[in-house]
Amino acid sequence: MTRIFAQARKELTQLLRDRLALALLLPIFQLLLMGNSISMIVRDLPIVVQDFDDSPASRALIDVFRGSMTFRILPWPTDKQPETAFTRNTARAALVIPENFGRDLARGVNTPVQLLVDGSDANTSKLLAGYAAGVARSFNASRAGGPGPQPAVQTAVRFWYNPGLSSKKFYGPGVFVMALSMFPPLLATLAMAREGERKTILQVYVSNISAFEFLLGKVLAFMAVAFAETVVLLIMLYTMFGVRLAGDPTPFLVATLLYAFCVASFGIMVGAAVPHQAAAMQVVMLGGFLLSFMLSGLMFPLSNIPAGLRWISNFVWSRYYIEIVRDAFLQGGGWPAVWYK
To answer: Which residue has the higher pLDDT, 17 or 286?
Structure first.
């Protein structure tokens, strides 16, 4: 046991001496950048409006769109084609209100308006169309207010665990997991591959330390690196992202201990199998970043992944840790919620 801790201390000393400890700052930048930039909520989309009616009713409809946080209303001359706004990159959509809109609305006649959407970005276009439909329903509901029969079924929607639908609270824990999946194994594989490149592994062969003690000492050293990153990233989640532990923290603590051992062992394994730093780094980036980013449920539900690729997610270790971390910070279900995941 003494030789194991001596090996771990030697690894940490060498890490500081080689200034690779600066890599501990990279998870902080990653959490700040990805946690604040990734968002599935669309805001401040420019939309041009052509009002051919210019009536109180048409202006009221425009005001409803203007009151939404999703849209930013831009006037557009009625003598220009709205498609020109798309080609000039002025707007992402165009709302066209026809003549006699207010008169038909007062008579109770169907009064269609046209919404042209730039479909070059399919995801944003779908969200924009959905938001516009919601604004139209809100306008119709305000026009239908007052005495009269009310709908038999009314839906009251309440969002649990994340009432404000904050993207930071959803993506912050996911980016936290990705940082732990990337940087500790990356440092571990570089340290192990460097032993082979510089032939310092030969000194281990002639020493009295066993292979088990040598590998376990390296794993413990980079587990310590993972724990240091965990503490720093948790402080950032608490202070800058407003995330708090929602329930029993013991599943999160136990899972973090096991996950640190998993990622450190993965890095050591790759460094031992690929004794070249550049090649070993590419392998770790594939397993630590690409698979964790695409096949772990970080960006989108696993059910959206084609069945031909979905089975690979069963072997992506970050998939299970993300579920535990999100439960710890959002839902608070504890052991019953994560035991079988």
So the answer is: 286
Q: Where are the domains of the chain?
A: 2-38+165-338, 45-143
Q: What is the largest CA-CA distance in the chain?
A: 96
Q: Distance (Å, rounded) from C-alpha 70 to C-alpha 68?
A: 5
Question: Backbone dihedral region of 7: left (phi > 0), alpha (psi from -120 to 50 degrees) or beta?
Answer: alpha
CA distance linking residue 45 with residue 73, whole number of Å: 8
Hey, is 248 helix, strand or coil?
A: coil
Residues 229 and 176: beta-carbon distance below 8 Å: no
User: What tens digit of pLDDT does each residue of 33-47 get?
Assistant: 777 767 667 778 899
* Distance from C-alpha of 241 to C-alpha of 329, rounded to nearest angstrom: 11
DSSP-assigned states of every residue in 267-282: HHHHHHHS-SHHHHHH
Rounded Cα gap, residues 145 and 193, in angstroms: 71
Instruction: Report how far residue 254's alpha carbon sits from residue 233's, in angstroms, rounded to the nearest whole number.
Output: 17
Read off φ and ψ for residue 161, nearest 5 degrees.
Answer: 70, -35
Average pLDDT in the chain: 83
Strands of the chain (E only): list them: 45-51, 71-75, 93-97, 114-117
| Record: fold of 45-143 | abc type-2 transporter like fold (3.40.1710)
pLDDT at 61 over 70: yes
Q: What does the CA dihedral 192, 194, 197, 201 come to, rounded to 10 degrees?
A: -50
Straight-line distance from the first to the last Cα atom of the chain, in angstroms, rounded to the nearest whole number? 34
- For residue 255, what pLDDT is reported? 93
| pLDDT tens track for 154-199 | 555 666 777 776 777 778 888 899 889 888 898 889 888 888 887 7
174 vs 124, 188, 250, CA distance in Å?
Answer: 22, 22, 19
Instruction: Classify residue 245 by its DSSP letter.
Output: -
Tell me what pLDDT residue 20 has.
60
Can you read off the two tokens belonging to residue 32? 């700040």
Q: Half-sphere exposure of 59 toward its Cβ, with a 13 Å CA cutoff?
A: 3
- Distance in angstroms (rounded) separating the CA atoms of residues 188 and 69: 46
